[in-house]
Amino acid sequence: MRIDILSAVPQLLESPFQHSIIKRAQQKGLVEIVVHNLRDFSTDKHRRVDDYAYSGIAGMVMCIEPIDRAITYLKQQRDYDEIIYTSPDGEPFTQKMANQLSTMHNLIILCGHYKGVDQRVRDHLITREISIGDYVLTGGELAAAVITDAVVRLLPGAISDEQAALTDSFQDGLLSPPVYTRPADYKGWKVPEVLLSGNAKLIEEWNLKQAIERTRKLRPNLLNSDD
Ligand code: ADE
Ligand 1 centroid vs 133 CA: distance in angstroms? Predict the structure, then answer.
């Protein structure tokens, strides 16, 4: 899989992909993540990628030209399954969406900034808008990092124990059951007896019961949702 990220502030994305599982996924050749500086596609002598809004609304708008040039440059090299724009107006990002995106070959993620992009980018250049939640970030870079992280960890081989990704919260529409590790008794706070029993069937039943109870208590909406 390949993920190209277009950003006006690529420095914001220097660290998130350089550690842990996402770094190893790149080293194993499961994914190539390439961050592009949109300013490299600007024809302006000051490398500007934004301008005033025609409507007079306060705040700058990202110009279509550098974005179009960047996307055209990438599309000349390969086909893309989706061209995603990160924005608070987009479809809410879910585990289901992460699963879908993880089956694709090539993705572009355009990071929004300022007051947003020229509407013609949304109308003509992108295929999908994604929001990571109902709050406004200073830019789409953190959203792009969240989406990339959630997708890459699902690639087969990214997580050593494949079961680990399958038993994630949300993967089966339920939150994860609680987990414990040694010591079995810490200051009198004990690990539930069943987990020490060595009885795999009982433990599996306990896990499922806990997952359902936890979901009912913390996120009851998940139990009635199709996502
Ligand atoms: N850009 C600013 N806020 C955002 C959000 N909540 N999701 C995605 N992109 C954003």
Answer: 7
Indicate which residue's Cα is closest to atom 10 of ligand 1.
Answer: 87
For ligand 1, which residues put their CB under 6 angstroms from it? 86-88, 112, 131-133, 135-137, 140, 143
Mean pLDDT by 10 residues, the chain (227 residues): 98 96 98 98 96 93 98 98 97 97 98 92 98 96 98 95 71 90 98 97 97 96 79
CA–CA separation, 91 vs 94, rounded Å?
Answer: 9
Q: Give the CA distances from residue 166 to residues 15, 141, 145, 155, 222, in Å, rounded to whole numbers and listed in that order.
A: 27, 27, 21, 11, 17
Task: Select from 164, 151, 159, 158 the least CA-distant residue to 25.
Answer: 158
CATH 3.40.50.1860 fits 2-152, yes or no: no
State the Cα–Cα distance between residues 130 and 115, nearest whole angstrom.
16
| Domain 167-223 listed as CATH 3.10.110.10 | no
